[in-house]
Amino acid sequence: MSSIPVDRQVYRLPIKVNRTDIDDLNHVNNVVYVSWIQDAAAAHWNSAASEALRRQCRWVVLRHEINYLSSAVEGEELEAFTWVDPATGVRQNRHVLIQRVSDQKVMATAQTTWCLLDPVSEKPKRIGPEIEEVIRLKS
Predict the structure, then answer these.
(1) What is the b/e burial string over 29-39, where b = at least 16 CB atoms within 10 angstroms of the residue's CB?
(2) If you write DSSP's letter for every residue of 105-121 in order, what string do you get?
(3) 11-135 belongs to which CATH class?
(4) CA–CA separation, 124 vs 60, rounded Å?
């Protein structure tokens, strides 16, 4: 996955690389990328879903798969693009592409499997069409 789809709702999150993101090798630590991936997912969900829908849902990560392609350094401006695949029952795959703003170089790509939970029982809950319409279809 190295291109942004045109048939899906794609959310963009700007990122500024801070000193606290840097590790002993003087580039962004891998754990920071995981945080950015989760931040992009949360920002997309919170911007697309109504407050009522957000109260009916809790999302948990089942799996992260990340490809680190290039090193980001302090001061760089990046952007994360995120979109989702069609849901399968209680699961949905989310993609994230992180690129440097100055030259659009792809720094990392990720695919994360999320599971929808009922907020009261905390048991898996089928992803219905109302959620699909909100976060998957191009608006």
Answers:
(1) eeebbbebbbe
(2) -EEEEEEEEEEEE-TTT
(3) alpha beta
(4) 10
Strands of the sheet containing 11-16, edge to edge, are 11-16, 77-84, 91-100, 106-117, 58-68
> In angstroms, what is the C-alpha Rg of the chain?
16
What is the pLDDT confidence band of residue 10, given thresholds at 50, 70 and 90?
very high
Reply yes or no on whether the pLDDT at 2 is more than 80.
no
Give residue limits of the domains in the chain.
11-135
Query: What's the CA gap between 90 and 80, in Å, rounded?
Result: 25
DSSP type of residue 70: S
Is residue 94 within 8 Å of residue 39, measured between CB atoms?
no
Higher pLDDT, residue 25 or 1:
25
Q: What is the mean pLDDT of residues 34-41?
A: 97
Mean pLDDT for the stretch of residues 102-129: 97
pLDDT(139) > 50: no
Are the CB atoms for 129 and 94 separated by under 8 Å? no
